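Try it yourself: sequence plus calcium ion, in.
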Amino acid sequence: MAAIPILIDTDPGVDDAVAILVALASPELDVRAITAVAGNVPLDDTAHNARKVCELAGRLDVAVHAGCRKPLLRSQIFGKYASGGGLAGDTLPAPAMPLRPQHAVDVLVSELGRAARGEAEKITVCTLGPLTNLAVALAHSPSIVRGIEKIVVMGGAFAALGNRSIAAEFNMLADPHAARIVLASGAPIVLVPLDLTFQALATPPRLAAIRSLGNRVGEMVFKLLTYVDRSDVERFGMAGGPLHDPTVIGLLLRPDLYRGRPAFVDVECDSPLTLGHAVVDWEGRMGKVPNAMVMTDIDSDGFFVLLKERLGRF
Ligand code: BDR
Ligand code: CA
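Structure, out:
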């Protein structure tokens, strides 16, 4: 079977890094480009970190592009625990591979545009950070929506508490207006919210299993995941830190491990108190057509078996 063409829009970030590694280890996926966006850390750092991760994977051929520096309207925020440049200081060496000159938005417009015109296969867009790049691309060229196979978005929190504010998940809070544009775009959307990622916990035994792979990638992933602040464990009483972004890639590889259902979703853009909160209308009470498949559950043991197996391929 031909590999699924994907674009990864990302703000690495340790969990973004693990997601990129899993994607690059998977022959079922054809990573056409990695587009960086400001999020966990400023844009220069996310673009730098994305290249560090490609080099760790031995994939200097992957095109990494820098995108938007600021959110559309709101004042900029970064990840709460962004110290260490987003990737645990100098755990990974500085990259030698160059950043490609084209702007990330231009890459999204041209790649999705080719697919929209029927000149190439439709593309799955994986968004692992704030949705600024994709929203700007859709505003620039709305017709590119026809080139999108689906958008798999890590973002939102429904029954779960927010992680960056009481009511909001970080990727939605960092650029709620962009999230609203993407959700209203008409593209097929799969949403992977905190409610699901809070089930994918990097517990000490799971981290030890990754380290026991004995390869450099396993060792580095162990270091990255143990460097990050464990405040989720403290705040939410979890057995380990949630591994958010890799669940997006896992969904493409093993959809059978996930459950979800369609619903209409929108994001709060006005209230300072609940800015970035994702509202899901499970019962269709707003009378709106569902705009997303909202994933609710993951077989976390199966997911971590997949993760370990893929990281073991390096
Ligand atoms: C999301 O925010 C970032 O900190 C993570 O990389 C993930 O994409 C989780 O809320
Ligand atoms: Ca991220």
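One thing you can check immediately is this: The pocket of calcium ion (ligand 2) is lined by residues 11, 13, 16, 39-40, 128-129, 245 (CB under 6 Å).
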